[in-house]
Amino acid sequence: MADTLSVGSTSLTLSIDADRLWSSLMELARIGAYEDAATGLVGVNRQSLTDADAEGRRSLIRWMRQAGLEVTVDEMGTIFGRREGSDPELAPVMAASHIDSVATAGAFDGCLGVLGALEVVRSLNDAGITTRRPLVIAAFTEEEGVRFGTDMLGSAVAAGRLTLEYAYDLTDADGLRFGDELVRIGFKGGRPARLAPPHAYVECHIEQGPVLAQQGYAIGVVTGVQAISWQKITLHGRSAHAGTTPTELRIDAALAAAQIVMHVRQMVDSGRYGRLRATVGHIDTFPGLPSVVSERAELTVDLRNPDDGHMAAAEADLAAFLARLPEYQPGLCVQTDRMAQTDSVPFDHSLQDTIAAAAKDLGHATTRLMSGAGHDAQEIAAIAPSAMIFVRGQFDGISHNPREYSTPEDCAAGIAVLGTTLLRLAMEVPT
Ligand code: HGY
Ligand code: MN
Ligand code: MN
Fold first, then answer.
1. Under a CB-based contact definition with an 8 Å cutoff, are residues 394 and 406 in contact?
2. Whether residue 4 has pLDDT greater than 90
3. What is the pLDDT of residue 359?
4. pLDDT at residue 352, as a whole number
């Protein structure tokens, strides 16, 4: 059981139930679980708006209601749980993340922030605490973007960067439309998708990288998120017999794809674009047969950079390279489709300090670091003071992989910091 509230002269702290948190994480991880052949581990595949996602959503709603929350679902399928405050007309404090996953996920990405926020509610209930401000927790739809091609989709619509119509018309690899899938799983809600700005937004997330572990911290205070650029590139060549077609008569789409893979790595190695990271995560050729020159190839290019200027220069370099590709293979056609593009986003400094103070009061040293991954917090930062708490990952912080792992102790520490931060924010009175 959670301890009762310990009220210091100037600071409130909230203890949470570590065992209850951990068992909720493991319970949700069983939904969409699969045997991962590459690692021999049990991974999680709960891509947004799939039946597995729908099952996870229904479980979350059940748990939210059991915790006494008023549950609403918005037009994007984002799930909200509201815990009333003594001053219900005050803007709420919000804690959220996502429960959709990539196809080869672990148990923590997104889920720690949603189930951690739920644990804070449960602990406030145990302690019999009524906060001044309402507390709203949420699970945003399609944060990963791996099924419908745009990341942070639910939170971007909530904050007004993307429109509902844009989101509804996105399609997956099978041509299924986001808006139709939302209806199919029964999660097209009536709550308006545009979110009224909360008083403050705090998200707890596993770091998904090696920094905290390398520096020996369980908890990190996140200073912001780096810029993200996602493009799908389709190369149209000409199908031909692999044996009879002389090289000079070929328009080989697979060759062009390989040139792009090499070029983005050379951009990174050149050092011209600062701390650029480039990933070709998806690559496919058609017809994909050993004795046929590829008629078509498609690939995705994911660029990340903490500096917007370097990101713009890297994107310009890639665009110029793509424009030159047909010079090498006359007749080649290069098609680019923008999937996602976000600038770097700084998090609210005073909120960072509130998190750091809460961690310190709970006995946790912290370091400040920028997030390498995108998060819903970066979208909500456009409409409200927002910040994040990182929890140390194990095994070099591997993520988007079934080996993703954080210890029960570190998860509990992160959510105790979240709970104390939310409690302090929810007791703030308007100045
Ligand atoms: O891709 C990302 O950075 C995040 O996991 N959506
Ligand atoms: Mn995430
Ligand atoms: Mn992720």
1. yes
2. no
3. 97
4. 98
Distance 208 CA to ligand 2 centre (A): 9
- DSSP 3-state of 222: strand
| Per-residue b or e along 206-231, where b marks 16 or more CB atoms closer than 10 Å to that residue's CB | bbbbbbbbeeebbbbbbbbbbbbbbb
Strand partners, 7: 12
In angstroms, what is the span from residue 49 Cα to ligand 3's centroid? Answer: 16
Q: CB of 373 closer than 6 A to ligand 1? A: yes
Pocket test for ligand 1, best of 44, 151, 155, 205 (most atoms within 8 A of CB): 151
**Is the pLDDT confidence value at 6 over 50?**
no
The reported pLDDT for the residue numbered 430 is 66
Q: Which residue has the tokens 């709603």?
A: 61
Q: Are 406 and 108 a contacting pair, CB within 8 Å?
A: yes
| Apex 370 CA angle, 109 and 364, nearest 5 | 75
Q: Where are the beta strands (DSSP E) in 85-125?
A: 93-98
Q: Which DSSP category does 37 fall into?
A: T
For 297-327, write each residue's pLDDT tens digit: 999 999 999 999 999 999 999 999 999 999 9
Any atom of ligand 1 within 6 Å of the Cβ of 144: yes
Q: Where are the domains of the chain?
A: 2-226+344-426, 228-342
CATH superfamily to which 2-226+344-426 belongs: Zn peptidases (3.40.630.10)
**Closest ligand to residue 205's CA:** 2
Q: What's the mean pLDDT when you consider all of the chain? A: 96
**Domain 228-342: assigned CATH number:** 3.30.70.360
Ligand 2 (ion): residues with CB under 5 Å are: 109-110
